Structures are given as structure tokens and as C-alpha cells.
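Need the bound structure for FE2/S2 (inorganic) cluster, inputs here:
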Amino acid sequence: MRQAACVAGAWLACGAVPSPALGATQRHPRSLLVDARGDALASRQLKPGQAYLFNYPFTASPVFLLAFDRGVLPAELETEGKQRYAAPAGVGPNRSIVAFSAICAHKLMYPTPEISFIGLRKGGRGEPAQVIHCCGDDSRYDPQRGARVISGPAPQPLAAVLLEWDAASDRLYAVGTRGGEMFEAFFEKYAAKLELENGNAQRKPSGASVVVRSAASYSKRWQTCST
Ligand code: FES
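Answer from helper R.:
Posting the output first, comments after.
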């Protein structure tokens, strides 16, 4: 049976209270998550507390894939444009796997093959155990609450990437996004840079499968924010 991220109609299964005015879902072509050999990635291969990345819904747009040691509940959030939406609950056997766009909602910093200024880090005092922290201007997001903004200048949460989990095969699929997508601004701002990194395929859809890599192998250097 396939378990989708909690969407309208699946709220009861997710143990959450439905809200009448939630939206901001963008459907994109479905992509199977695979490992570096091209084999389907099993959710059990993900280590809790470790960051992984894949590119979705475009070959140039990075996404954080995160597993936690406990279930992640849906969170009611709002985009910069005041559109309310439900960031999905976790998927997988423990409902603990979530994914978010890795493009910072402030000035669009993102992990590149050379360096990343935005990553999963240990939370500080009064924060969750782990936060997504962008060194650019110190925006911090809570990955267990829909990547809501904890602090910093980011005007909205990171966009959630909708996942589906197939219980029979343990496979994972990316099927869309919810929240404030920033792809238009991203491609506009980094047109020349993305051209160098990705050739002329900067808006190419991810395709039927996307490779999941550990954060360490996605970017050569992960900026610590303290240097
Ligand atoms: S670009 Fe991420 S906080 Fe400014």
C-alpha cells in the first residue's frame, strides 16, 4: 500500500486535524528515488539525523531528504504571500521521512557541487535538536515542523517536497511541492551559474528517477557558518 505525505483526505490516517483553507500544492512529475547505482532507494537505508540530497523537480534544484528517529507531524504554515498550507507529515514506516527544497527562502543560497552554505546542523539552545541553517544571513528552519522559520530574515518556510512511500517495496517517490516554491526566482538569479554547472538543461525536469546522495558527497565543502 502506498503511503502519501498527509494531504487532504488522508488527515485522519495522519492523526491530524483538517484545516479548511490549506493549499499551495504544486504537482510535478513523479520521480523514483534511487541510489548512486540507479537501484531504488529503500527508506530503511536512510540514517536518522543525516542529511541527503537529490534534485527535484528540476535537475538543477536541490532538495534535502531527512529521516528522524521519530514521526514528523504535519504543520500548518504560511507562505510569504499569506497563503496557508499544510506542510506534510513524514512518510515511511515510522512516518519520519521528510523533504524540503534546499533553496534558502531569503536570498536563495543553495548547495552546489563545490560548497554549501545551507545545511542540517545541531540546534542551539531552545531550538529543536537539528535545524536547517543558512550561513548566508543566519536563517534557521525547523525540519520537524515543516521547515518553518525559527529565526533570521527568511520570509517563509522552505518549500516542502511531497513524498510517497510504497510499503510493499519500501520505495520512495517525489511527487510535487507544497508551500512557497522559489524556482522562478532561483533560475533567474543564477542563470549564468547554473549554465556553467548544468549546461543548458537548467530547467530540465528531474525525470523518472533521481539520485539520492549523502550531503557529504553532494557538496565538496559544507560551510560551518563560524568561519
Ligand atoms: S540566503 Fe539564506 S539566510 Fe540569506
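Comments: The CA atoms of residues 106 and 134 lie 9 Å apart. The radius of gyration is 16 Å.
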